[in-house]
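Students often ask why we bother predicting the structure of a whole assembly rather than each chain alone. The short answer is interfaces. A chain on its own may look different once its partners are present, and contacts between molecules only exist in the joint model. In this exercise we take two input lines together and write out one structure for the complete complex. Read the inputs first and try to guess which parts will touch.
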Amino acid sequence: MSILLVGGAGFIGSNLATILLGKGERVVVADNLSRGNLEILTNHFSSDLFDFRNVDISDCDQCAKLFDEYASSEPFSEAWHLAANSDIPTGTLNPDIDFKDTFCSTFQLLKCMRDYGVLKLNFASSSAIYGDLGDSKISENSGPLLPISNYGAMKLASEAICSAAGESFLEFVNIFRFPNVVGVPATHGVILDFFEKLKRTPNQLQVLGNGFQQKAYLHVTDLISAMLFVRENQDNFARINPLNIGPIDEGVQVRWIAERLVERIGRDISIEYGTENRGWVGDVPRFYYSVDKLTKLGWKPSLNSEQAIIKAIDEIAIQEEILSR
Amino acid sequence: MSILLVGGAGFIGSNLATILLGKGERVVVADNLSRGNLEILTNHFSSDLFDFRNVDISDCDQCAKLFDEYASSEPFSEAWHLAANSDIPTGTLNPDIDFKDTFCSTFQLLKCMRDYGVLKLNFASSSAIYGDLGDSKISENSGPLLPISNYGAMKLASEAICSAAGESFLEFVNIFRFPNVVGVPATHGVILDFFEKLKRTPNQLQVLGNGFQQKAYLHVTDLISAMLFVRENQDNFARINPLNIGPIDEGVQVRWIAERLVERIGRDISIEYGTENRGWVGDVPRFYYSVDKLTKLGWKPSLNSEQAIIKAIDEIAIQEEILSR
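Now the answer. The structure tokens for the assembled complex follow.
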């Protein structure tokens, strides 16, 4: 049996692949490489436990062909679905991207899981499904769910069909609602954005919005530890299991991140802020996230938002230095 | 200017078309006639206010062509989207139907509304987005939203993208969460199901489930009065406006409906029940629906669940007698 990992050539997926392989699991990464990067999987190609397939899971035929290929030899014991368009502003400009990469990927995957009897699903959802619920502390039961970006909308849409599949045929489905996740290999996100801006204007950092947007950040290693904690304690969770994952603190402001990044670089850089309370259409200015459901069962993050950001700034600085050589 | 009414050849859409035309509005019905029926619009073909287009709105090109056709002459002032696959069990067997008719119709419609500057949307959602929340009274803010049918899932998916569109470009979007709606022309639903079963077995009525499933029913005339009440009082509602519509009572049981229908027919019929507490995968056994948000602003239904059922049984009995001649 092997684990199907859709989107395994992305930021979080590649970290998950490494950890699952380290546990001795067989892993088949399926990725269309639209945003994923094959190079970050290079270390695994020599492993007998690892397979890579360049497959667009949102394409009905390609998805079925993949399931068919493995059905007779080493059928999938479970699926992890981490593929999505992670570029929120681009998805607002062109809704077709989120439609295909975020929603249709879930839809076609579920159809094949049913057809081939793969009954365990771990789905990467997002805090973006909650939209802007103001200052209230957001639990898994909070509503109304009115996402304000196409990204959040297509994640909620995906949750909805995962839930219906849970009712009709899945053994279980974990709906992991990710917070902002930081670490390497960074492919997007606020820290990488700042580094890229500084390549263009080395002495000035222009921040989108007024910098008071406050969010919780989790390091990718903690995110994966939370998901694997659930996997190992599946019986303690509901069969259809929406679950917030995040740090326990209330997060940090974007201006704090900008200041730490400038400190790390150690160069004279002026930070310029906008006037809006959000960075872009679909950005949520404040965000309080309850992870009580998860922590009550014994999981704890090793780093809080500040520590996660500091660590990620350091990791991404090194990544960018290596890439620029 | 004219009103675009997608799904206007269906049960609720055709009733809405009649009432809007009666108010002197110009109405363009777009329907792919997959479940809609052109005959029920016959009375309107002679009206200068009425247009019909056989268009599959879930098809990108067909949808754009429709908007293009009207953009120069009489652009759409607002859109009503009532097209969906209303056959829940069929949607469970074949997810492609709900995907295309319920979700993609919303997705393509929103893209064209943005491209052609149509900024007011009334969307027919469903109580099915709530899934099975047990005995709690369900308000618009209730959660978690874990639909248990593909129908409910694709309605929630549609809500999600309507919400994101509300954030990025719509002037307003009403997300009307319909209860079970009864009346004529009946195309589906428990009453019509019973009549059709009795054609096959005239002296025996087999009820799906144990008959204790309890739901609220609204007559179609009350449903439309509620939606037009919102339209006339738009300023009193939020710009992105999810809204439960339903009667004020707690509904009736399926076995009560079966008994009233047998009484109306006035023939010796034995009613047989199943043992399950739900009629099919995706059926919700009990359902308490709060419509406080709507009634607080002054709307009231003219009929309760019992009265709506009695009236609809009578209407559908006459419809079936006429059709069988």
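Check your guess against this: The mean pLDDT of chain B is 94.
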